[in-house]
Amino acid sequence: MKRSFQGFVLVTTLLTFAPQALPQDYDGTPLRIRVRVHNYAQVASEILVPAEAQAAEILGKAGIEITWSNCDPAKASLADAAECNQLMRPTELGVRVLPYFGVGAGITKKTMGLAVGNLASISVRRVKEEATEFGVQPCEVLGPAIAHEIGHLLLQQGHSPTGIMRAHWRREDYERAPRGAFTFTSEQGEQMQAEVSKRVQAQGAAEVATATVTK
Ligand SMILES: [Zn+2]
């Protein structure tokens, strides 16, 4: 009897204090994820910047706001974003832009992207091959490819029969792209928002814990 009474008190306490513990950007403002782009392939900014803008637009329509940190592994320039060398936080994801993938387990010559844990990788060779095949600019393939891989990281699941999370894209997808062929379903948007919300809360809790330890 006493045990269950204590349980009741604990639940009441959590319900009372949980809303105050939520980070400020939990309610109302867009849910935000920082993405570090490690440009191993040395893709020119004329390609990378519009690709990032398109990926941000696609994810923005699904309710996820992206802040990019562009990291240049080759130059290690002082102008590199300060976040590039720090430990990844819960609200951060990594995207490696690689020249190509070596063929191996689960990777074929046609593989354009991979997503494992909090890190996605993209083969620029495949991006360029697909751009040539469908007569579009490389940035028009790279942008949706980045959004697709971030989708894998946030949804923690495979492909869907429609929209941007399909396994393969066709010529008509690129032709329809300006009108929104590369979109997440509303269900996927809600799933990603829930995932980012969880990460924002985890980050808030981690920051509180760090502050307590360093006091
Ligand atoms: Zn995929």
Can you offer a commentary on this structure?
The chain is 47% helix and 15% strand. The longest helix is centred in the C-terminal third of the chain and has 29 residues, at 186-214. The chain has a 5-stranded mixed sheet. The chain is an alpha/beta fold and 215 residues long. It starts with a helix and ends with a helix. Residues 113, 148, 152, 159 line the site of zinc ion. Residues 113, 148, 152, 159 line the site of zinc ion (ZN).
Keywords:
Collagenase (Catalytic Domain), binds zinc ion
- Indicate the proportion of strand residues: 5-15%
Uncertain spans, ≥5 residues at pLDDT below 50? 1-26
| Sequence of secondary-structure elements | HEHEEEEHHHH
CATH architecture descriptor: 3-Layer(aba) Sandwich
Q: Portion of residues in helices? A: 40-55%
Structural class: alpha/beta
Mean pLDDT over the full residue set: 83
**Largest sheet at a glance?**
5 strands, mixed
Number of helices: 6
Stated plainly, the CATH topology is called Collagenase (Catalytic Domain)
Identify the CATH homologous superfamily.
Collagenase (Catalytic Domain)
